[in-house]
């Protein structure tokens, strides 16, 4: 009699799935290792074991960077769904759940907070996070509010958990091999991308470079730095961005730094409000120690 279990698909080592998911999210074996408290070598071996079991390549591997293959992107959808189901089922069994409402600027939440939030949840498994964008309006009373303030003087921000510096960046499609030698003046001969109507970041950058801000090939203005970064990656022009908001794009070569030693302060992210609630204290402390993560 035929064994009905013989037709079952052999599942991959389940312990490899979190490593795959986190590496796909962060685009880095090092960051995935940091979240899972393992070494990058251990993460690499887990992913190789998963690929060997599946018989497909999940990542393209380049110098200091990884990116998903088509098969990897397809598989990630199912892995994340399965992990979410397991996590929700586990959380339902845990007592004393704590809900923490965080309001933050949308670009900071998407590009800096989300890639790091897994580390916080690893340390605080009983917390349910509700992350809201300040730009979309508040739907709950926040426990933590992250605000942004402009400014060029570091002494203005003694309590900031993250100083905002700006650098000039562009797509390699725009100027390619001359990127390392281009002068600050020459950058203004190219189309300029602005993330505010008053060109605040560009004016501070030009001031630090010792040149006047006089774009000679026109400009395109966006109302968010998120939109400006997206436009920059398509090759529309030279943009300004905070290095910590474009970590993945720089790592994967989608954007390149231009004159990286010119990086003036343009503002800071701070924890707004007065005395935090008890459940927010731990998160605020985590923010203060996560800027280098």
From TrEMBL:
<dbReference type="InterPro" id="IPR036390">
    <property type="entry name" value="WH_DNA-bd_sf"/>
</dbReference>
<dbReference type="InterPro" id="IPR058163">
    <property type="entry name" value="LysR-type_TF_proteobact-type"/>
</dbReference>
<dbReference type="InterPro" id="IPR005119">
    <property type="entry name" value="LysR_subst-bd"/>
</dbReference>
<dbReference type="Pfam" id="PF03466">
    <property type="entry name" value="LysR_substrate"/>
</dbReference>
<protein>
    <submittedName>
        <fullName>LysR family transcriptional regulator</fullName>
    </submittedName>
</protein>
<keyword id="KW-0238">DNA-binding</keyword>
<dbReference type="InterPro" id="IPR036388">
    <property type="entry name" value="WH-like_DNA-bd_sf"/>
</dbReference>
<comment type="similarity">
    <text>Belongs to the LysR transcriptional regulatory family.</text>
</comment>
<dbReference type="InterPro" id="IPR000847">
    <property type="entry name" value="LysR_HTH_N"/>
</dbReference>
<dbReference type="Pfam" id="PF00126">
    <property type="entry name" value="HTH_1"/>
</dbReference>
<feature type="domain" description="HTH lysR-type">
    <location>
        <begin position="12"/>
        <end position="69"/>
    </location>
</feature>
<keyword id="KW-0804">Transcription</keyword>
<keyword id="KW-0805">Transcription regulation</keyword>
